[in-house]
Amino acid sequence: MAYINDKNPTVTLTVKDFGDIKIQLFPEVAPNTVANFISYVKDNYYNGLIFHRIIKGFMIQGGWGASKNDPIKGEFNQNGFKNPLLHTRGVISMARTQNPNSATSQFFIMHKDSPHLDGGYAGFGQVIEGIDVVDKIASVRTDFQDKPLDDVIIESINLDLKDYKEIPVEYIK
């Protein structure tokens, strides 16, 4: 919670049949990751997508689809970038493959603390309202691949830039 302040941009995820999750983004922690996420939000990319991977006691993951952009460099310690944000309950972080520079559109929100992710994934914000919605989503029934049996749909994500000065996203080509 050390990075929360009134000047940071916020997003509000409206999840069908579950409610709203309000997240404050931390550009001072992971500037390119925040810029990348905001670019997807501004393009309404996430609207209608689902939380496709849910593991109670760990995280809920969304944003999977036909990513519109090239990957970005992973902003985390194991990749040579100082990112002190820990993967505690409510932190939002970028998903990636085993390639540390493969993050595009997928993100995950921590349901519970997961210190084994610290330094290896780009945390870039924190849930400030709606952690109860994260709890409800984390409790849905899933199949053997952690996919919800019933779709958990992101209806929309609204953005409030506040004092955030937009920067161009640096993609890996």
TrEMBL record:
<protein>
    <recommendedName>
        <fullName>Peptidyl-prolyl cis-trans isomerase</fullName>
        <ecNumber>5.2.1.8</ecNumber>
    </recommendedName>
</protein>
<feature type="domain" description="PPIase cyclophilin-type">
    <location>
        <begin position="16"/>
        <end position="159"/>
    </location>
</feature>
<dbReference type="GO" id="GO:0006457">
    <property type="term" value="P:protein folding"/>
</dbReference>
<dbReference type="InterPro" id="IPR002130">
    <property type="entry name" value="Cyclophilin-type_PPIase_dom"/>
</dbReference>
<dbReference type="InterPro" id="IPR020892">
    <property type="entry name" value="Cyclophilin-type_PPIase_CS"/>
</dbReference>
<dbReference type="Pfam" id="PF00160">
    <property type="entry name" value="Pro_isomerase"/>
</dbReference>
<keyword id="KW-0413">Isomerase</keyword>
<dbReference type="InterPro" id="IPR024936">
    <property type="entry name" value="Cyclophilin-type_PPIase"/>
</dbReference>
<dbReference type="InterPro" id="IPR044666">
    <property type="entry name" value="Cyclophilin_A-like"/>
</dbReference>
<dbReference type="GO" id="GO:0003755">
    <property type="term" value="F:peptidyl-prolyl cis-trans isomerase activity"/>
</dbReference>
<comment type="similarity">
    <text>Belongs to the cyclophilin-type PPIase family.</text>
</comment>
<comment type="function">
    <text>PPIases accelerate the folding of proteins. It catalyzes the cis-trans isomerization of proline imidic peptide bonds in oligopeptides.</text>
</comment>
<keyword id="KW-0697">Rotamase</keyword>
<dbReference type="InterPro" id="IPR029000">
    <property type="entry name" value="Cyclophilin-like_dom_sf"/>
</dbReference>
